[in-house]
Amino acid sequence: MPKADVLLSGVRPLNEQACDVWISDGRIRQVGAAGSLVGDPHTVRPNVAGQILLPGLVDLHTHLREPGREDAETIATGCAAAALGGFTAVHAMANTAPVADTAGVVEQVWRIGQATGRCDVYPVGAVTVGLAGERLAELESMASSAARVRVFSDDGICVSDAVLMRRALEYVKAFGGVIAQHAQEPRLTEGAQMNEGALSAQLGLTGWPAVAEEAIIARDVLLAEHVGSRLHVCHLSTRGSVEIIRWAKQRGIHVTAEVTPHHLLLTEDLAATYDPIYKVNPPLRTVDDVTAVREGLADGTIDIVATDHAPHPHEAKDCEWSAGAFGMLGLQTALPIVVETMVASGLMSWAQLAHQMSVQPARIGQVDHMHGRPLQVGEPANLVLIDPQKRWTVQPEALASLSRNTPYVGREMPASVRGTMLRGEWTVVDGELQ
Amino acid sequence: MRHLLSAADLDRDRADSILNTAAQLATLQNRSVKKLPTLRGRTIANLFFEDSTRTRLSFEAAAKRLSADVITFTAKGSSVSKGESLKDTALTLEAMGAEVVVVRHGASGAAHRLAHSGWTQAGVINAGDGTHEHPTQALLDAYTIRDRLCAGAGNLDGLRVVIVGDVLHSRVARSNVILLGTLGAEVTLVAPPTLMPKGVESWPCQYTYDLDEALTGADAVMMLRVQAERMNAAYFPSAHEYSRSFGLTAARAQRLADHGIVLHPGPMNRGMEISADVADGPRSVVVDQVTNGVSVRMAVLYEVFGARAQVGAIGNAEVDNFIGGEPDAQG
Ligand SMILES: [Zn+2]
Question: What pLDDT, on the 0 to 100 scale, is given for residue B322?
Answer without folding.
Answer: 52
